[in-house]
Amino acid sequence: NLAPSASSLAEAQHVLEDVFGYKAFRLHQAGIIETLLSGGDVLALMPTGGGKSLCYQIPALVRAGTGLVVSPLIALMQDQVDALREAGVRAAFLNSSQDWREQAAIEQSLIAGDLDLLYVAPERLVQERTLSLLERASIALFAIDEAHCVSQWGHDFRPEYRQLRILAERFPRVPRIALTATADDRTRDEIARELSLERAHRFVASFDRPNIRYTIAEMGSMSARERLWSFLSAEHPADAGIVYCLSRKSVEETADWLNRKGRPALAYHAGLPPELRREHQARFLKEDGIVMVATIAFGMGIDKPDVRFVAHLNLPRSLEAYYQETGRAGRDGEPANAWLAYGMQDIVQQKHWINASEGSDAYKRTQSQKLDALVGLCETTSCRRQLILAYFSETRAEPCGNCDNCLNPPQTTDGTELARKALSAVYRTEQRFGVGYLIDVLTGKDNERAIRNSHDRLSVWGIGKTEDAAVWRSLFRQLVARGLLVTDDEGHGTLALTEEARPLLRGEETFRMRLAPAREKKSREKRAS
Ligand code: ADP
Ligand code: ZN
């Protein structure tokens, strides 16, 4: 590879100042730009808000020819192009929202060399017609944004992305850069492999988002919605934010519920008509203090800097998905909250979906591991940020001081006895029941089904009367999170023992358990009111 000339580096600095109005490059921007200017390929992993766009926009301006940007979201192209044009950049996009006349005009300016940047959807780019058009033009570079869409294990998989490897074959001399804000090691390698970027220079920025405070609430006696309400009233009475729900139905119900309580909220999911989705998105971006209640259909690439919170009313699919969704908060660097409430039902549901999916066994295993990593994050008693960063292969020496576990270290206690009782209840009832039933057995609660099953005659019947249901529920979750129990594949919530449970049952191991905060919190709230 040729080194970029000193003059092109100086030019990059000028463009940074004159076109974009910034004084200095951020970490990795200069290195990435330098690599592209010298004709090298790049795989850039930088968190949301890290400044990925400049990494390809500036070299596109400095190098001869047009920079081609592949972006999965047609809706976003318009905004990006508008912003660039305002800065005096000759930018355009090509997509199906334009009539053929507009498209022809843009194709002509591409051939004439009148464009600095051209945004295209992946399915459009890989069409033979587009490829031969590009061969007649002068191309400065290819930028593949949201490159994790190439990962079939990922939550944003787009099959068209896999076809983008053709760019390496058809344009071997044009530098390429793939960018993403989320990728664990496996996904990184998959991106490199699928896009023929094995030999690209990798730039990995820290994934830490220090201004985001992570809080993960156990579902106690209060419903998730009531918990959400106390979180919103206490921390964000008038801020804009996103509330994620799993189903379209609960999106609509939660939005209605917030509106009835006097909180302006809008719904967003794939089942709404496109015009309404666009209108809601536009209002969320423009108006102050709107709560967007949405499924994960909402969010990728939404560039609203002052989203002050992202709340999850259900468990996301993986730690990566959680990281990416919460990453939409606080892009402006100001303090923001990531808040999640979850219960055992979420784990059961997700496991069921994984097993009901069409994927191969390997696929299901991977998804299941990704979910387990998230459950582990939920149940950890140590710093959440350290765990999140560790998942992205980043070591952080000190606890962060800005997550719930750092701010309010959870109380732990010797839970060996209780854990043994819980595991015994699972075993004695032949590993055929879910948490609710098991708790009834442990607490000896009148239960027709239990009596019909003669479970009231078991030695475990009522041996857990000392604790209330919330404690047991929390303990069962911790046992699942630490792999001593597993839920079934069919979504019934049936719990079974694993090998990991043996040493504890045999008395060879002890079990530290986190105290269920329910009782403690309730009394705190009573005191406060
Ligand atoms: P990403 O795509 O990584 O989420 P963006 O490219 O949208 O991030 O950049 C996030 C914000 O940071 C934008 O407002 C951008 O203008 C700003 N930014 C990028 N690079 C710099 C820089 N070198 N100096 C100051 N601000 C920058
Ligand atoms: Zn922490």
UniProtKB/TrEMBL annotation:
Coiled coil region boundaries: none
Enzyme class: isomerase
Molecular function via GO: 3'-5' DNA helicase activity; ATP binding; DNA binding; four-way junction helicase activity; hydrolase activity; metal ion binding
EC numbers on record: 5.6.2.4
Residue span(s) of domain Helicase ATP-binding: 33-201
Catalysed reactions listed for this entry: Couples ATP hydrolysis with the unwinding of duplex DNA by translocating in the 3'-5' direction
Annotated keywords: ATP-binding, DNA damage, DNA recombination, DNA repair, DNA-binding, Helicase, Hydrolase, Isomerase, Metal-binding, Nucleotide-binding, Zinc
GO cellular component, one term: cytoplasm
Residues annotated as domain Helicase C-terminal: 224-374
Cofactor(s) the protein needs: Mg(2+); Zn(2+)
Domain of life: Bacteria
Any single biological process term in GO: DNA recombination
Entry similarity comment: Belongs to the helicase family. RecQ subfamily.
Protein's name according to its UniProt entry: DNA helicase RecQ
